[in-house]
Write a structure and sequence with these properties.
This protein is mostly helical and 560 residues long. It has two domains: 236 residues, no CATH class; 241 residues, Hypothetical protein af1432 (Orthogonal Bundle), CATH 1.10.3210. It has 24 helices and no strands. Helix 15 packs across helix 17.
Length: 560
């Protein structure tokens, strides 16, 4: 053990010279003894990772500028403000350009500000959403070429539902509102006899229903319902607003824009949007790289071939995953995180154990412990390998990226405590301190809330099985110890879990574990069975794979 580590553990504050090091600010005249170039570079050094991040940020800025320019030119052409016989340098043309640039800038800036406010890195789906907006405007331009087609057939509900799947509701509504504004301008250029503002209000009402309706959708029939409701809302808006929306219409125009016909076409457009989204959702998820609730529900089906094989090859690990999913989902719902994502991530977090199921204690079923014949270093390699194997299997099965990321993150860079403790008993303290880092998982640490919750649920579920008398008080203390150990080791430093979240997670874990370890009336013969079970547990208790932290091992390691 180093002198600095010894001083830190003993709680004694020593000077830099006592520790055999030179203080960076130790001049007798009270001035810094560091060189001028050292003072200038202090706190301003940039690593290779920082340089790459800076280059990536600069690349994104240029892409945003190009996207902005493309959006301005495209919208100008589609609305009808740019044509071969039109002079854009005239006063009306310049004014329109200025207004249009201001509107597009406002949309882009507002979307980026919403991304920062909502703490989401959504630049990639946001850029594709603007491409989707461009496609929507092109579709409007094609439809409006035929004046006999009702403007209510414009795919406004479709755009609202797609944006609702891709972005946060606030961002989706902002971009959809911009689409309505551009649509109103396009209609005004081609059919000035229609009150396009009233039409736009009806379309915006349909968009609100579409965006909010697709949130937390878990069945495909629900998508059809949302499309119908969006179309119905738009139809009702047309009936309420269109009686005042006609100015100097002739008979032919009145027949074409009859309010009842427009309402009917609005309803047809909403239902068609629901049908199209239902059929195109798998392609949309893959192309936009989004994870919808429907996809998560499908992945949670335990009859899927991968999970079915997992339950057959590693039944103990599979049951452990089910319990971890129950804990993680309850905790996530308590603090407002994605509970379904936590449950699905828990189902797949240990699939790497299928390659060597017999090396993990939950699958030994009372047999010999193979780790008794292995060195701690070899056992460490076998145990840590299940993370890499699980990630490879998940990528081969093309699981969504958040699920793949949760597999290595559920251990982070924590120490395989059982085998480190076993190794520490074979060497002196100084050697044990040097080898501790070698017994850490490769990481990375959890970078989002659901991964952090999964890490805590995994440790709590495995270690709670060792509680001899799981009373609510003991369960709470045990859960608190696990959370404090993970927090003290810095495993939760890179995710957004607050202290308030950790308290909520602790309460949720205690509720679920107390329900699992519920009491019951003792039946005749229970005493004999309990003694037999205790004897079996004593015989196999030393066969812990070491994958989960035990309280005793954690305390011993911290003391070292």
């Amino acid at each position: 053990m180093t002198l600095r580590a010894e001083a830190r553990q003993s709680g004694v504050t020593r000077s830099w010279k006592e520790l055999g090091e030179v203080a960076p600010m130790s001049s007798s005249r009270g001035r810094s003894s560091t060189k001028s170039w050292q003072r200038l570079s202090f706190g301003k050094r940039q690593t290779r990772t920082g340089q790459l991040s800076s280059e990536e940020a600069q690349h994104r800025r240029w892409m945003q500028i190009l996207l902005l320019s493309f959006q301005v030119l495209l919208v100008t052409f589609l609305i009808g403000w740019m044509s071969p016989g039109q002079d854009l340098l005239s006063d009306p043309g310049v004014g329109r350009w200025i207004e249009l640039v201001a509107v597009v800038l406002l949309i882009h800036v507002g979307s980026l500000l919403l991304s920062r406010t909502l703490n989401t890195d959504s630049s990639w789906p946001l850029g594709r959403s603007f491409m989707l907006l461009s496609g929507f405007l092109i579709a409007n331009w094609i439809i409006l070429q035929d004046p006999t087609v009702s403007v209510m057939l414009l795919p406004v509900p479709l755009l609202g539902m797609v944006l609702g799947f891709l972005l946060k509701p606030a961002q989706a509504i902002l971009i959809a509102a911009a689409a309505v504004v551009f649509t109103v301008l396009m209609v005004l250029e081609r059919q000035p006899q229609i009150d396009a503002v009233a039409m736009g209000l009806a379309q915006f009402l349909g968009i609100l229903v579409a965006v909010q309706g697709v949130q937390k959708v878990r069945t495909r029939t629900r998508i059809l319902t949302v499309g119908f409701l969006a179309g119905l809302t738009q139809a009702i808006g047309n009936l309420l607003l269109e009686p005042l929306a006609f100015r100097d219409l002739d008979v032919t125009a009145f027949v074409v824009t009859l309010p009842l016909q427009d309402a009917m076409w609005s309803l047809v457009g909403g239902i068609s949007a629901g049908v199209l989204i239902t059929s195109a959702l798998p392609f949309m998820e893959r192309w936009f790289d989004v994870l919808t609730e429907i996809r998560l529900v499908e992945l949670a089906d335990t009859h899927r071939p991968l999970l079915n094989e997992f339950s057959l090859l590693a039944p103990g690990s599979f049951q452990h995953s089910l319990m971890v999913g129950q804990l993680a989902e309850e905790a996530a719902n308590t603090i407002g995180a994605d509970g379904l994502l936590c449950r699905v991530g828990a189902l797949y977090h240990d699939i790497g154990k299928m390659n060597k199921p017999g090396y993990f204690v939950e699958n030994m079923q009372g047999g010999d412990n193979v780790h008794d014949r292995l060195s701690p270093e070899m056992s460490r390699l076998v145990v840590i390998a299940h993370v890499k194997d699980g990630k490879s299997i998940a990528e081969e099965e093309r699981l969504p990226k958040p699920i793949v990321d949760m597999i290595p993150m559920h251990h982070g860079t924590s120490v395989v405590e059982f085998f480190f403790h076993k190794k520490a008993q074979q060497v002196d303290e100084e050697e044990a301190d040097r080898t501790r880092e070698a017994f850490r998982y490769p990481g990375p640490k959890p970078t989002f809330r659901e991964a952090g919750i999964l890490m805590l649920a995994d440790g709590v579920e495995a270690s709670s099985r060792t509680l001899s008398d799981p009373t609510p008080a003991r369960v709470r203390q045990h859960v608190r110890n696990i959370i404090q150990a993970r927090t003290g080791d810095g495993q939760l430093d890179e995710c957004d879990l607050t202290m308030s979240d950790l308290h909520g997670i602790e309460d949720a874990f205690v509720r679920v574990l107390s329900a699992i370890h519920h009491g019951r009336v003792k039946y005749p013969g229970d005493a004999v069975a309990q003694q037999q079970d205790s004897g079996e547990n004593g015989a196999t208790g030393s066969g812990d794979s070491g994958e989960e932290n035990s309280t005793a091992a954690s305390v011993t390691a911290r003391r070292r």
